[in-house]
Amino acid sequence: MENFIVSARKYRPDTFQTVVGQASITATLKNAIKNSQLAHAYLFCGPRGVGKTTCARIFAKTINCQNLTAETEPCNQCESCQAFNSNRSYNIHELDAASNNSVDDIRNLTDQVRIPPQIGKYSIYIIDEVHMLSQAAFNAFLKTLEEPPKHAIFILATTEKHKIIPTILSRCQIFDFNRIKIGDISEHLGYVARQESVDIESEALNVIAHKADGAMRDALSIFDQIVSFSGRSISYKDVISNLNVLDYDYYFRLIEMLLKNDVPGALMLFNDVLDHGFDGHHFITGLSSHLRDLLVCKDAVTVQLLEVGGEIKEKYKSQGVACDADFLLEALKISNECDIQYKASQNKRLLVELSLIRMAQLSLKKK
């Protein structure tokens, strides 16, 4: 049986060009290499799954490449690149600070830093989850980080920059990685699907991208899960069923009922949502998002803030036209109040039902 490699590893970027959603950072790093303006310490910070460690590895590989391409990318042909690709490079050292966070571990690192590289100009030290170092380990690391040997470059990566002491921060060039946009995640997932010969609907890709919450690694893990569930042909219904996501259709139908002052219909729709195993809080936060999306659809300037595609985007636009801006603002205010009060409420179902009744009566006030 052939060994399965998860998509997050199989499609991990190996050049700056293949990194998704971090164009400004990759451009800065490439220019630093091209102009020989390499700092001795870098700090890559940002949420999980956005490419911090990946960029650190690509940066480390590119620094020591002996035949850089015209686009300042590693050649993958020289001895240094081949050693890195086969995990036998003695110039690039990775340390996991979560399990090596004591003073002794840092002392071993500072002793190792003095040894010059065998191939290439630089020894690069990638320290992942650097915020996990103890206070004493941080202090032991300070002097080496400030004045390392000429051949040493440190790349620190963390998800929690606020836990790093200011004296460390002041010694590093800091790069803040962004959450990856939903459109970029959808596009990359579409590329992965084509490579894997998987037929998947664009709306399904959009749901996965929303669920990933800006993390490419999470999106690829969800994609693998859906492929295991549905096989090589994946529909929008398959994705919302597997991920337990509320169908957009519920909210479109609900807004139609609210505009018609159909209180019984709205309450029965909410009952149907609960019967399908969804939580009331999940429903009300989803309704808030739907109302917000309808509101941004009403203006040609803000419509670009709508992070859905295909047929669903057209549905939003047509329903946005049918809704009065005052109705949407008042409904959004009610749903937001319900969201805030939900956890403290003793009768959560009644709270949501009262909110729906209030929303259904908003258009009556206009008549």
UniProtKB/TrEMBL annotation:
One annotated GO biological process: DNA-templated DNA replication
Alphabetical keyword list: ATP-binding, DNA replication, DNA-directed DNA polymerase, Metal-binding, Nucleotide-binding, Nucleotidyltransferase, Transferase, Zinc
Catalytic activity field: DNA(n) + a 2'-deoxyribonucleoside 5'-triphosphate = DNA(n+1) + diphosphate
E.C. code: 2.7.7.7
Molecular-function annotations in GO: ATP binding; DNA binding; DNA-directed DNA polymerase activity; metal ion binding
UniProt family annotation: Belongs to the DnaX/STICHEL family.
Function: DNA polymerase III is a complex, multichain enzyme responsible for most of the replicative synthesis in bacteria. This DNA polymerase also exhibits 3' to 5' exonuclease activity.
Subunit-structure text: DNA polymerase III contains a core (composed of alpha, epsilon and theta chains) that associates with a tau subunit. This core dimerizes to form the POLIII' complex. PolIII' associates with the gamma complex (composed of gamma, delta, delta', psi and chi chains) and with the beta chain to form the complete DNA polymerase III complex.
Name of the featured protein: DNA polymerase III subunit gamma/tau
Organism name: Gaoshiqia sediminis
